[in-house]
Design goal:
Blueprint: H1 2-39, E1 47-50, E2 57-61, E3 64-69, E4 74-76, H2 88-108, E5 117-119, E6 124-130, H3 135-144, E7 150-156, H4 165-174, H5 178-186, H6 201-217, E8 224-227, E9 230-233, H7 237-244, H8 251-254
Parallel strand pairs: 6-7
Antiparallel strand pairs: 1-2, 2-3, 3-4, 5-7, 6-8, 8-9
């Protein structure tokens, strides 16, 4: 009986100790987050955790990992290696992005594709987030010209660094043949030219729908692709080509 009582007391002591440790860790993290927000209000981080180096915290900011020293309010960019030359930063980022891309791929199933600009009728399904004035987006657009084996749905994500991008988005969405207008814009045919846009309630709603899709997917840079459910960030042409060269598995083939 005494032995059971002692074991019970020890179990509760361990539970209380673990809970206390977790509370202390959360409090420490909250303190670090507050210091980071105060020192760097423009850093819209998604998480702050203890790094492998004592006193240095890992900050996940979009698709980047930074390090923060709260004692001196110093933010550090760069990569962390251990004594075996393992790139700890790259490994962590790979794991973080894999989870993020998995989540994005799931969310993509609920995107309003009827609001996107559709081009092509091929078996491969490409969902694209692009900026008309992004040079890498135009590079990808040039590659896609040669592909006739895909159906592409384009959502526009005009970035603040391109002041005319939103006007070009509006120009595209104002046209009767949006796919043709999109092609013209991505080829630079209206760059430096005077062009007219419309004031149309439907276009306004479409722009809102594209903004909402971008926000829902958490996309902050372009171009960004979901190809047959697999994510490609940036104009990684070799990876895009690899995915488009893979066989499309029909639902009936999965059975």
């Amino acid at each position: 009986m005494m032995k059971k009582l002692l074991l019970s007391v020890m179990a509760w002591a361990i539970i209380i100790w673990c809970a206390g440790t977790a509370i202390a860790a959360n409090a420490a993290n909250n303190d670090v987050e507050n210091k980071l927000k105060a020192a760097f209000p423009d850093v819209d981080f998604s998480s702050v955790t203890q790094s492998p180096v004592k006193g240095l915290y890992e900050v996940v900011w979009g698709d980047k990992i930074l390090y923060f020293a709260p004692h001196d309010s110093i933010l550090i960019t760069g990569q962390m290696f251990d004594k075996t030359k393992r790139n700890l930063t790259a490994e962590r980022l790979q794991g973080i992005m894999a989870k993020s891309y998995e989540n994005i791929s799931r969310k993509a199933k609920d995107l309003p594709l009827d609001k996107a600009v559709k081009t092509g009728n091929g078996k491969h399904v490409v969902i694209e987030f692009t900026d008309p004035d992004c040079p890498f987006c135009r590079q990808a657009a040039k590659f896609f010209e040669s592909r006739t084996d895909m159906t592409k749905y384009t959502f526009f994500t005009p970035l603040p660094m391109h002041p005319d991008a939103l006007n070009k988005v509006r120009y595209i969405l104002c046209q009767k043949d949006r796919a043709k207008a999109f092609d013209e814009v991505m080829k630079g045919k209206i760059d430096g030219q005077k062009y007219e846009t419309c004031v149309d309630a439907e276009v306004n709603e479409l722009i809102k729908a594209h903004d909402s899709a971008t926000a829902k997917m958490g996309i902050s840079s372009t171009p960004f692709f979901i190809i047959d459910g697999k994510v490609v960030s940036g104009a990684d042409i070799p990876q895009i080509e690899k995915l488009l060269n893979e066989k499309v598995i029909d639902a009936k083939d999965k059975k």
